[in-house]
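**User:**
My hope is that you can spare some time for a protein that puzzles me. This is the protein in question:
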Amino acid sequence: MAFSCRSFVLRKRSFYTKVRFRKRVMVTGVKMWNLSEAAIKELQNLPETGMGFQLVEATIMGNATRLLVLDSEPAIDLSQIELTPGDDPAVILHNGIKVIEALKVDTVRTMFAAPGPHSFRLLQTRIGPLPSGSVVAGASVRTALPSSLVKHDKLKANRVFYRYSAFNLDKRVDPVTGSFLPGTYAAPESEIPFVPTGFLAVGRFALPNVLPASFRYEITAPVGTVVDFGTVAPAYGQSGGGVEAYFASAVTNAAVPPAPFTGLPDE
C-alpha cells in the first residue's frame, strides 16, 4: 500500500485548479482525496445528491468513509467533521453548516493512496429514492434537507433546462452533445431571472460550494423526458428557495448543435 500527503494553500478559484505547495509545513485542514479514473467513472454512474455534488460513503484502506464529492472528482473527507446522525431538520441544517465551515479553511491536504477511494454508495439524494445497495447500516448522517413540493412530470414538448456549475468542464455534461448523465440535477428556464451570478446560484440552490457556480450549461430535453421538480430547502448556510429539476434517466440534448456554456459573473 502506498500513501502520501501534501499540504496546500488555497486562494480564490484555486480550490480545484491552481494550488501553491507550502514546503515542509504540516497544517490542519480538510483532506481531499485524489481519485482514479475508475473512481470518477464509478461516481458518474451514481446519481447526484444535488446539483453538482454527491454525498457518498467509500471504502478507503478498508474503512468506510463519508465523502463530499464535487463534480465527480474532488472528494472531501468528512470523517474528521463531527456530524450528528438523525432526521431532525435542525440537526441536518447544523451538519450542513459544519461542512461548509470546514471547507472555508485556508488549507487542504490532498491525499494519495493505493488503492484509493472505491466502492462508492450514495448516502443522500434531494429528490427520488436512493439506488439499491446504498442503504448504510446504523443511523444515517445527513447534511441537506430533501427538496419539498416535489412534482413528477413527463414533458409534453421540448423544454430548456439549465445547470449551474463551478466547473468547466462539468463531468455530468457531455462536452460534445450537451447531454446529461442519469441522475443529474438542473433547473427550469424560469430560474434564469433569479440566478444572474455564480454566487446567487450557490445560494438559491443551497450548494456546498466555497466558489461561485458561474458556468451555466443549457440542455433542451426532448418530449417524453421524465423529470421531477422540487423546491430547494435551506442547506449549507444557504437559503435555497430555487426550483430544481432531477433527471433519473439520461437526457439526450435535442438542440443540434448544442448551445455553448455561458460564463456568469461571480457576484
Helices lie at 37-44, 89-103, 198-204. Residues 96 and 236 are 4 Å apart (CA to CA). The first helix runs from residue 37 to 44. Residues 1-28 have pLDDT under 50 and may be disordered.
